[in-house]
Amino acid sequence: MRSILTKALLSASMLPFLLQSGAIQETLAAEETAVLRGSASMDDLGMQIVKKEIELLSLNSDFRNHYMQGNKWKKRRLKLYEMAAGGVANAGDITLISQFWHYYRNPGAGLKHKGSLESGAITVMVAYLSLGGLYAAEGLNDLFQDFRSARKGWSSKSVLQKAETLKNEIDAAISARKIALQNDNSSPDEKRMLEQENKVLQDCRDLSLLEFSKLYIDARKKRIARDVTTVGTIAVCATGAFPGALAVTRGIQEVNLKMIGGGGIGFLISGATLAGAPLLIHGGAAAGGAWTKHNLSKTLGEIQCKVASNLESDTASLLAMKTDTASSSQLSSRMNAYKSMPSLFAERQDFLEAEHRKNKRDTIEDFITYAIEGGPQIAWGTLVARAGYRYNRNASKAFKLIAEGATVNEVAWGSWLLNKTQGSIRDELYNLKHRFDSTSGAFGKDNKSLVQLKLLGASANLGNAQ
Length: 466
Description:
The protein is mainly α. Helices cover 89% and strands 0% of the residues. The protein contains 14 helices and no strands. α8 (257-275) runs antiparallel to α11. 35% of the residues are buried.
């Protein structure tokens, strides 16, 4: 008992000494330093979030520019192939029209000049084989370019992993910042300002991920449409050449109308495939896009749909809050980023919406033009098949049906050639109008807002290194 009292008296007697020695003041100073560190860590987290969101925006730009790279030149090549094939096919079809109309009253005389009758079908076969071979070469080149892209880290899987990593880092920093704000001893005005900044950071995060999702889905849809177009064109050309034009040529050589009728079935399948191409291309792309969106939600989670105006409103509210605390002066280093982001998101949203409207118009136009091009070929195939199978004992009637079918088919090849020509001219005018988009446009590497954001991130890294 005596020892306890002695210790208590000693402790009481040492209290003034402790106060004089500054031990308690040091303890209080340490606690105050911890609070300041918490505030500083909030600012560090804020800058970290901004830098990661800038990285995600840069990834979006680089990804879109990558999967759109070379698209302009490929379209030019394909238009050239189609125009050349259309010109050759027109020549072949006109030959068929002239020869079969010339000899339909006297088929025997025509069979004495088989070369004249065969020349039209052979010319059409050359057109089909040329176009199919060139599209096959483009398909192989697409696969090679996909392989090169994957080696450079631009495969769909690699890009998605990069976006997922940035998303997880941003989410972790936002969560840590919210927890730090709950434990912060700042003034009520400063807390309201920091809470408003959290809303701005969350808006930027949601808009960046929403933009990535749109670009990722669009890239997948374009790839599916590209592959279906390649395979579909090869199928149209293969069925048009074999058994289409080849069977007609052999039927003329062997004087076998039933064999010519088999060629009509080939033309019929070719025309039906061409007429149904938009459904296969755009339907396949839409189904692939829906499946990609479903899988993307599992990886990135459900993303709240926002527009740039949400960020603009929240940023304006944040900029309107003014305090004289240290935190507000540190916050000013991030204000430039918040000022640049709304305009960048708005510009990109407008660009994607305009592109979506253009794609919608192109889709409707595809359904119309392919029906005009494929429908007459279906009629051509039907008439040739009917001539070969139904009138195989009446050569005059068969020749007349073939001549009528070739005349109808000229609507298909004529419209094909005109459509490809006007499409090529229109594409060149569009490219001329948007010739600067690749560098300074919404997703261009020289976009003013994006360059400012990158410079801000670089200066923040430099400041941290110092």
